[in-house]
Amino acid sequence: MIEKLNRFLNPTRQRYAWIIGAVIWLAWLVNIIGGQGILDLVGNNIGADFISYYAEGKIILMGRISDLYSIDLMNSVQKSIYDSATPGFYPFLNPPQYAFFMVPFAFIPYLVAYIVWILLGVICLWLSIRLLGIQKPLKVFLFSLTWFPVFTVVSYGLNSFFTLLVFCLTYYFWTKNKNFGAGLIFSIVLYKPQFLLFIGFLWLLDWQKSWKALLGLVLGVLIQISLMLIIIPEPTLAYFEFAKTSIPNFMYIKEFPIWNSFSVLSFWLALFPKHPKLSQILFVICAIIVSFFIYDFTAKTTG
């Protein structure tokens, strides 16, 4: 299978990826340079999701961390950053401790902060490739820039490169048989609980060998939650309520930019915007199918 893939991805075909990648990046740069302020040529904000990270730092600087999950406040702060009506609302969905990492960015102008954010993300991408022990890391790094998901992370200002670094650090510790450390490190992605559940599920299937990793994962999450409740109790409790009542419903509000959401549920909602119940049913069906294949694959690989 790998040999067939190698034959398919021969040097001639790889040139197509370089060409397509160059065209995409060039079009993106033209779109940004041709825009006004922090809006691009077609009127969308530069950085898309980064606006929510930046705004959370602004809210902390305002001394209103307890209101971090106020939708009205977040919306008004984003409008003030745009100095106009926002082309879309980008809510802050992460636990409150992660907002503190954005405070240094909030001290500088939005576009400068976005550039610094992207540079740090690209460094994380490079470190991730190095941690994987890949031969010719520079070539792989440059070729990864032709991959559309990498372009998406940069153009939307996502935090995916930082998440990737945590994944690769976890993998590095795992391959060194430091399972407890692997689990402890992976608990950092508490801001992406779906990943915690996914990897935790895989480790649970292999619990006899992976119990130390599970222990590290659970301990890391409990430490974070405990510190949150002790140091910043009000925004932490507000986040729990926000996660329970608001986050599951964000995709259904009119202002939510469904075009900028990459998930199975958003895919079905984009196809059937007037039938949210049908979209939810199709999402559950997909989740069950994927879970079955994951279980089957894990059972075969772990013996």
Which key features would you list for this structure?
single chain, 303 residues, mainly alpha, 15 helices
Uncertain segments are none
- The first-to-last residue Cα distance is 21 Å
Overall, the morphology is globular
Count of beta strands:
0
Mean pLDDT: 82
List the total number of helices.
15
> Order of helices and strands, N to C?
HHHHHHHHHHHHHHH
Rg value: 21 Å
Q: Helical content, roughly?
A: 55-70%
> Largest sheet, described in full?
none
Quaternary state reads single chain
What structural class do the secondary elements suggest? mainly alpha
Strand content: under 5%
Give the arrangement of secondary structure elements.
Blueprint (H helix, E strand, L loop, with lengths): L1 H7 L2 H23 L16 H12 L9 H12 L20 H4 L3 H22 L5 H8 L3 H9 L3 H16 L3 H8 L6 H13 L1 H25 L1 H13 L18 H8 L4 H27 L1
Helix pairs in contact: 3-4, 6-7, 6-9, 9-10, 10-12, 11-12, 12-13, 14-15
